[in-house]
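Lab notebook page, bench 4
Experiment: in silico fold of construct C2
Operator: M.H.
Input chain length: 215 residues
Purpose: comparison with the prior construct
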Amino acid sequence: MTDWITRWQEGKIGWHKNQPNSRLIEFIDCLKLSTNACVFVPLCGKSVDMLYVLEKGFKVLGVELSELATRQFFVENELHFSTKKSGKFVIFSSENIDIYCGDYFDLDASVLNHVSAVYDRASLIALPLALRAKYASHLYAIIPAGCRMLLLTLNYPQSQVSGPPYAVNKTEVVSLFKGFECQQLQCFDDIKNEPKFQRENVDFIEKATYCLRKK
């Protein structure tokens, strides 16, 4: 995962968007969040989706390996923040948001025992196959029972172009998250809005949205 630190240092962050994700806006209600509920955002980068969650009246707990990305989130959004060391992490904190700067796999359940939901826009699909299984298994281990998850994925012919982002289909989602109830909310071909994949002559790119709940 240290490759991601290099990508941030070199500014190779094509996955970063300057507007909240439209599928988050459309489907956030599936998380059934109460006022002041906390949403966990793994591998969060400097995603403005976190601002959207805050603006909806919820709290955010993120984890990000890159200190550069973490610091940029607060500076670029003009959020005053403090930092403190906690175990293997440096925690960046502002009003209603804490980002743990460090390795996702070093998080334990005690950090997330107050979390009500998970939002994954580009975490699972950022990881190669072997790490995806480890990611899902660790997530199951550290979030509370009953926790809901909004998961966004991409699926395309992996043989036609290499990741990241990697292709993840519904069969794999169900297999990875077998300890969760899983509902696919939406799936559509969006190749017309993906010039990178068009240039690679990819046949299709399906964008799927799932709502999961840990049993």
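Observations: The first helix runs from residue 2 to 10. The helical segments are 2-10, 22-27, 49-55, 67-76, 129-142, 170-176, 195-199.
Next step: discuss at group meeting.
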